[in-house]
Amino acid sequence: MQSDKKIVWEQRHLQRNRPFLQPLAVGAVCAVFIGIILTMGIQDLNRIDRTLVSFMENRGLEIIEVIQKLVQENLNYLAQARQASGSESFVPLKEEVSAAQKSLTKAMVDLAQEIDTRWKARGLNSAYLKTYAAEKGLWLVAVLNDKGKAVYYSRRLPPDLFLGTDFTPPRGGEITLDAVAHLGRMKKIGFIALRRTDGSGTVIIAMDRDGLRYWGTKVSVEKVIADLGGGQGLQYVTITDRMEKVLGSAGKVPAQVQTGNLHAREILAGVRKVESRKLAEGGNRILEIAAPFFLNEQIYGIARVGLELNSTEAILEENRRNTYLFMGIVVLITLLSMMLLYYDQNRHLAGIVRMERQLEKAERLSALGQLAAGVAHEIRNPLNAISMASQRLKREFSPTEQDKVADFQRLTGVIRDEIRRLNGIIEEFLTFSKSRRLEFRDYPVTEVLQKIVNLLQEEATVKGIVFRTSWKEAHVIPMDADKLQQALLNIVKNAMESITGKGTIDIAVEAKRAKTVRIAVSDTGCGMTAEELDRIFSPEYTTKEKGLGLGLSLAHEIVRGHGGEIRVISKAGEGTTFEIFLPAERGAEKAAGAGPDRRPTGNGA
Fold first, then answer.
1. Which of 85-94, 503-512, 516-525 has the lowest mean pLDDT?
2. Mean pLDDT of all residues in the chain?
3. What CATH architecture is 435-592?
4. Domain residue limits, the chain
5. Spatial contact of 598 and 562, defined as CB atoms under 8 Å apart
6. Which end of the chain, N or C, is more open, meaning fewer C-beta atoms within 10 Å of its C-beta?
């Protein structure tokens, strides 16, 4: 069932119908841009971090390679010393070989002194020596009394070890210094015997091939690490064998290194060439690097190196700050751009709404104006008939009673004056609404102004208004003399109407730069407020009690048709000045185009 309602007029606001897509689209693009920048910044930080870590890993590997090389050299020197000691002839040793042998001997002497100290403290027994020998990788540890017989020992000497030799095996596996010395010559077992200065006892430490290899490696590692020292960010170095026994260590090793294995099995298997991790120790940032420790081209253990990370962390922190600062600036610029875009688009949308409303209003006014022009034109004929009838009535039908003559004359005068006023209003309206094509020709503007002064001089004198003119030459410009005279006449008449009582009107003409003529009309009238200045050229605005107030609108339109402009300077109570600027060359005809049929859109001020 259809509704009986009918929409006569509907006005929709532009901002409600038009989606606000542009800022949203820009916002989405900015969000994507920020995301890309953030991702790139994080990737850049990670890349720098990986680069620095890789650089430090290479440095740690270089340190480990140096240690491996020096340890291998020391082991070779120890092997040369053993070969020389097993030779029946005297072989002079090099200084490096002798130093390596002395280091190993000193390590064994330190062990013997440690056992002797415990022996003196009466805290020694065979069970302790057995455990001690197993922990230190020693083949035999024994303590002999002043008669050369073992008191405590880690193991007995099996008699079958001496079979096939001219040496008499010890009874019951007894341990004597001679037996150990013979066993060393026979089985290539190295040993050291440390006798007390008072002869009250002797400590014997013997090592087989594995023990010699272990202690030779341990002594070499400790010597190399001690000679290596610290500095240049090196925090600690520790080297362990496959059984996780520490071969050598320097620096303060964090507890985390002792508990973490860093994939030790994979490193010992050769699957991982290098492994690293970051540690924190006492406020310092450390990068621990673990790698296989090679001896004789085989993986003997694991080498761990700790390098200081404070300098690299400072570099990363600076890059991180710069990245965040850059991101903050990008976000700030994006937000400001969004705000400016939001403000600018809303302003333009509001302007478009105003323009559409003005256009709708202009269209309605144009339609009403055309209708009113036709009505006004049709009204003129009845007015003429009424005017003629009133004149005949006054002339031929005057009353005979004397007391009614005065009233009759007054009433007919009112009819005549009102008809004249209505006719003037219609004439003014038709003049404003009908099409006006300008016909340009060169003509002195001063002559036009002088005609206006002559035309209004009598009326001005009656009102007490004085005209003062100021021009030195004719100032010939291209114009439609009749239309321009009408425009200037309306401006001067407006100046006269603004003066109550006596006053002056100054009219001046002068040539300005850029081939322009300036006409100034100044009065000492009541002036105008700022609100009135904004509306004086609007056709629907007037302060007159009578008439339509189209004079200034018509003047503004004619001046624009001549390619000129009007500026108004006024202050309430201090008078008004109209400045008319007209081009002094005929090129203005092209600017005028089809004439002043365009409606004024501003006050020209």
1. 85-94
2. 78
3. 2-Layer Sandwich (3.30)
4. 20-226, 229-308, 356-426, 435-592
5. no
6. N
